[in-house]
Each structure stands twice: as C-alpha cells, then as structure tokens.
C-alpha cells in the first residue's frame, strides 16, 4: 500500500507540473495565426480565432487586451479568462493601401511636361 501511495503522489505531482507548464503558454494576438489562437486561448475555437484575425486585418493591431472584446463573439468574460495567456507584442508594419485614383493622378502629374 505504501508503494501505491508513493506512485499515486508522484503521478499527481507530475500531472500538476505538466498542467502548470501547459497553462503558461502565451500567444501574441497581434501576430499569431488562427490555429495558434484556437489552441492557446480558452473558449476560442476556429471561428472566433478567424474573427480575431479578420478584426486585426480591418482595424490594425490590438493596443490593449481589452480591445479583444470588440471582436464579434468575444466577450469580457473570455478576455478575463485569457488575460494571462495574451501578449501584445509589436505587430508587423502595415503599409497603407494606395488608392488607385491617387496613384493615377500622381503618375499623370509626373508625366506632364513642365511649362
């Protein structure tokens, strides 16, 4: 019985340590792909992970953890459950989209000879 108790305690301790290591995984919500968001964040599945990516593409990088609640399907409860898992690192630089009309006007003005 003593051997059984020691084996049980050792098993529980290793499960506890493994769980702590798993729970400490963090994700940068400004750079992570949908699969990583789905895997690391609690109550975030594939659809919500894709919604996070789409929100990031439309509105730019998240500047605070609370901004995650602006994503459709993500509430403050989900944000609070994941606060320790979320990192806000620098997002990759976004180049502003060039408007075709502005580009054409610039090209036309540059092509005209000066008088």
UniProtKB/TrEMBL annotation:
Give the span(s) annotated as Disordered.
90-115
Give the domain of life.
Bacteria
The record, for InterPro entries, names: Competence_ComEA_HhH, Endo/Exo/Phosphatase_dom_1, RuvA_2-like
> Under what name is this protein listed?
ComEA family DNA-binding protein
What Gene Ontology terms describe what this protein does at the molecular function level? DNA binding
Repeat is among the record's keywords: no
The protein's matches in Gene3D superfamilies, at most eight in alphabetical order, are given as: AF1531-like domain
Extract one GO cellular component term from the record: type II protein secretion system complex
Which residues constitute the signal peptide according to the record? 1-23
Biological source species: Luteimonas yindakuii
Could you list this entry's UniProt keywords, alphabetically sorted. DNA-binding, Signal
Q: Which GO terms describe its biological process?
A: protein secretion by the type II secretion system
């Amino acid at each position: 019985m003593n051997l059984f108790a020691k084996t049980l305690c050792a098993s529980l301790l290793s499960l506890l340590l493994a769980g702590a290591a798993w729970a400490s995984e963090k994700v940068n919500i400004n750079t992570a792909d949908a699969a990583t968001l789905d895997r690391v964040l609690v109550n975030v599945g594939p659809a919500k992970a894709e919604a996070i990516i789409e929100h990031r593409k439309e509105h730019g990088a998240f500047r605070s953890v609370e901004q995650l609640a602006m994503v459709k399907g993500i509430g403050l409860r989900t944000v609070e459950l994941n606060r320790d898992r979320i990192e806000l690192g620098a997002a990759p630089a976004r180049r502003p989209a060039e408007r075709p009309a502005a580009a054409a006007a610039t090209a036309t003005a540059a092509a005209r000879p000066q008088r």
